[in-house]
Amino acid sequence: MKVNKDILLNQYFDEAVEETKKIVSIPSYRRELAVGSPVHKDTRKVLSHCIELCKSWGFETFISDDYKYGYADYGKKDKLFGIICHLDVVPPGNISEWHNPPFQPKVIDGKLFGRGTFDDKGPTMMNLFAFKYLIDNGFEPDYTIRFIFGTSEETTWECMEAYVKNERLCDLGYVPDGHFPVVYAEKWISDVDLTGNFNCDFEIKGGEVYNAVNDLVSYKGPKTEEIKVELKKLNIDFFEKDGLLWVKGISSHGSLPFKGVAASSSLLYVLNKIGFTHPLVQFVAKYSHDNFEMKEIFGDLTDETGGLTACNGIIDLNKEKFLYTFNFRIPCTRDYDKEVNQKLKDFLKQYNIELTVKKIEDRVYFSKDGDIVKNIMSVYQEVTGDFDSQPIAIGGGTFAKSMPNMIAFGAEFDLEESTMHAYNEYVKIEDLKKMMEIYAKSLVKLTKIK
Question: Which pTM was predicted?
Fold first, then answer.
């Protein structure tokens, strides 16, 4: 089947954008749950919306009893082709940092702003409507097509754990939550807690998730004026409110900590500079602050998939104990346990800091010469005219890790302009159009069995 770009964009794109706005307006980030409720009401709402949309198109649909996941099937072929999307988002953070309210999506200067417009609600709708165009125009895939909707990608992944435990795995498929042209490798991801007991006279608190650079932390304790002087020297913004000193940073995705500024790290660096002797202060200031590969501890772990990166997401330090988290992205060929987790655990003993591994995400690796990578590359080149870009490796962890034979395909075009997990998240309208065209043409090629 030949995709008619004019019909695709003129008859399907505007509705896809409107449906994107509808689900972006639902604040589906993780919060405290009502007693007896397995998921937040907004999670149920956004999942139900997508399922009802697919049902209105004639798909067979399913939602798990606990609303952790749902899916929509088209066709009854023997093999299953999956498109795994996620409907949860990271928290909006400090609302005052948004130029437009995060859950009131709006197109401004050719960009659709709102939390989740890019990660992952916009790409989800572009895929749904790309496929709707295909079946409306007579396309019959050789696979049953299954859109899988997860609800905890940004946190626990319990949605896909439940899916894999209870449902049929896909024979082939992709995840529109990575980068273009195609992601042939995804690094290991390790979430770890650094904890310890230490009596002190100050408190620091900030961050909400492991996989985003914290951009605001509070400080309560002595030497506030000295701290402010040093923060000014480093051009670190701060303010005082409710008897606390608030230090500001710049949020960024956990796989791109070098694009952000961890408020926690800046503060601990300053505390060390003015003589604080807390073990966490000393460790972070010497080995972690503005040092994303931490080579003094790990050495150079770089391979073809890139180097190691470390992101601090959460800090909770009080007068008796402390918690400090790292989200590590570890090159594919490395031994994540021996070369990172165990090495750091041994290193921290000199500071009386304990390390606990909270989560490990497996790596993903496809041959650049395999059929799926070659097919995706050919469609990407046809649509964009870009014959220079090559399959890439990323530090980000996508649902491609949740089951075999899944690959991350899109939806980010320009990593340097990434707004995933950042304030004022947006996606360009022109990029949404390119997504829709790429996914429509790719589904034609990928879902026909030779």
Answer: 0.80
